[in-house]
Amino acid sequence: MSGAPAVFEVAFLEKMQRLLAEGDFTATYKFAVLLGLVELSVEAPPDADTFTTRQLAAKVIELYWPQVQPFEDQLLMQNAHRQARVVTAVARLREEASRAGLATLPVAAIAPRLPRQWGRLLDEVEWSLVEMPLTRLQRLPSGADEFIYFVSWTHADTEQRNAQLRRKLRAGSLDNRIHMQPDVVPTLARFHSIVRELVEGRWVRKVRELNGVGLGGPDLYSHLFGIERAQLVRLAGPLRELQRGRCFYCDKRLAGVDIDHFLPWARYPENRLENLVAAHGTCNRSKAAHLAAIGHLDGWLARFGQPDLAEVARISSWPSGGGATLAISRRLYALQPESARLWSAPGEFADWRHPDVEARITAVEKRLRAV
After folding, report:
1. Vertex 30, ends 263 and 319: CA angle to 5°?
2. 164, 165, 167, 171: CA torsion to nearest 10
3. pLDDT tens, 145-155?
4. How far apart are the C-alpha atoms of 327 and 260, rounded to whole Å?
């Protein structure tokens, strides 16, 4: 997988670090924009160089979805003066989802069940991104540097013709593309874990500043960016049945069931059904943040596009999306050096070759396109 020149990558990461150190972050919107662009870059086709504000809005909603839950009986502020507008809007939808009995579903599963409310939230978040962080994110006290992206409207537009801009967005006549600068998408995709760690660390610090110095530590981080494991419980039965009562990794009979992210959550927060398997607790804990060996990869790839998996998605109401998950798998495996060791079983690791993985993922992508 080709990427940007090394000199560009180093300069880009240095600018990203400077942005996070010197930028004006009175609210957490800008962190959400950065992480949303990272995720869009990882999941994008190799030749992608633009995203839309609509796509980014959906990512921002996903990021805030767990954060609007109380932390230690406290609703966390995400703005220096009053609660951030986007956070209030996301919390409103979460409350409506709870009243509709959908509280145990991830946010991507809410959209088709509450389409009117979801559409209203998307509209509100998209406008908030247009009006505020997108034209302000790359502005430093020393001046603006559009080193990540550029858009068709300006900071002055949002101040001087705000109502006109909003009408154009609603009518679909605003060019809502986010034009990524050359080489930025592959760089964000390649260094997504580094950028994510930088942004998430700064986000945690800002939340602590806004809500009190006593907040912090791993519990706050897990609340903001961790897995809502209570949601995964609904998949234990269907995935166990799909796997005929056997652990995905060791193929032995399952007694209890752990739901494991085949592509580890610690490497990328991919929660679609294709990435979830039923496993023994011992296998799950041993695999941890390791990528799985070729044999496991083959078994995982074989599930893509299968009717049985589609049926699990239907009965569990869990979101799926094979193309994006495959793109993520390609990125994660491609980042491993030839000397990497992949997890095979508790205490056992196997060698691998990058072209073998590329060929396997490409074959599945071709099979899905042919269906």
Report:
1. 35
2. 130
3. 999 999 999 99
4. 19
CA dist., res. 107 & res. 65, Å (int) = 7
Q: In this structure, how many other beta carbons lie within 10 angstroms of the beta carbon of residue 335?
A: 17
In this structure, are residues 37 and 58 in contact, taking their beta carbons and an 8 Å threshold? no
β-strands 149-150, 177-180: how paired?
antiparallel
Cα 185 → chain centroid: 15
DSSP state at residue 348: E
- Per the listing, tokens 């992480």 go with 35
The residues with which 180 forms a beta bridge, in sequence order, are 149
DSSP letter assigned to residue 117: H
User: What values do phi and psi take at 150, rounded to 5?
Assistant: -140, 155
Contact 258, 280 (CB under 8 A): yes
> Is 259 strand, coil or helix?
strand
| 302: Cα separation from own chain's centroid | 24
pLDDT tens by residue, 37-65: 999 999 998 889 999 999 999 999 999 99
Indicate the residue type of 160.
Q
| Angle at alpha carbon of residue 297, lines to 272 and 313, rounded to 5° | 25
Dist CA 239 CA 257 (whole Å): 9
CA distance 323 to 329: 10
Fill in the DSSP letter of residue 4.
-
Helices (H), ranges, the chain: 6-22, 29-43, 53-64, 85-99, 115-131, 133-136, 155-160, 162-171, 184-190, 192-211, 217-225, 229-232, 236-242, 281-287, 294-301, 307-316, 322-334, 354-370
301 vs 328: CA distance, rounded Å: 13
The reported pTM is: 0.92
